[in-house]
Each structure stands twice: as C-alpha cells, then as structure tokens.
Design a protein that fits this description.
Distance between the termini: 19 Å
Structural class: mainly beta
CATH architecture: 3-layer Sandwich
Strand order of the largest sheet: 1-10-9-4-3-2
Number of domains: 1
Number of helices: 0
Helix content: under 10%
Strand content: over 45%
Radius of gyration: 13 Å
Order of helices and strands: EEEEEEEEEE
Shape: globular
C-alpha cells in the first residue's frame, strides 16, 4: 500500500460535537475540532502571539484564543476577529472507521 501521508491522531469518540482536542504530530501541535459531527484540524497556536488555541473556546466553526480574543474559522483558517489578521494553517482530515487521520 502506498504511503498517503496521513497519520492517525485520535479516535472520533475522543472529540464529541462542539468539543476540541489538541494532539501532537512530531513537533507540531494540531487542534482537532468537531463541528456538528465533522472533524476539522488546524494549527493549535494563535498566530498573533503564539498562544495555544486549545486553552480557549470553540463556538460552531470558530475557536477563540484566550489571550487576546482572536478568533479563527476552523474550516477555512480565516482570522475572523482581531487582533489576529493572518489565516491559520489547516490540515486535511480523513476518517478510517473511528480513526481520525490528518495529513501534517
């Protein structure tokens, strides 16, 4: 089987709808967010002042950084509330049964 570049990072049962979970892939920290049953993956670091987004809140498609209130859309990566203005990195996600896979 060819290497697809995807890595198993969690079981879907670990991330209920409306919740998030931070995982480490090598040296990278990735935030998994369950939006209405669909898993999304993004960088776990706010690009405004490098603070973990997993310390904040999730509301629908948005995560909020606890440090200064920046918000990001986890589907598109777009910064939706200042002070952050740059989009964040998002990762491709696949499910294999109950396994959550991402391409880092």
């Amino acid at each position: 089987m060819a290497d697809t570049g995807f890595v198993r990072v969690a079981d879907i049962s670990e991330i209920p709808p409306g919740e998030m979970k931070a995982v480490k892939v090598g040296i990278q920290e990735v935030l998994l967010v369950n939006v209405a049953g669909v898993i999304h993956a993004c960088d776990n670091w706010c690009n405004h002042q490098r603070y973990r987004l997993s310390a904040g809140d999730v509301d629908g498609e948005e995560v909020r950084c606890d440090l200064h209130g920046s918000k990001f859309n986890v589907v598109t990566g777009e910064a939706t509330n200042p002070p952050a203005t740059e989009p964040m990195k998002i990762f491709e996600v696949r499910l294999d049964g109950s396994d959550v896979l991402i391409r880092p």
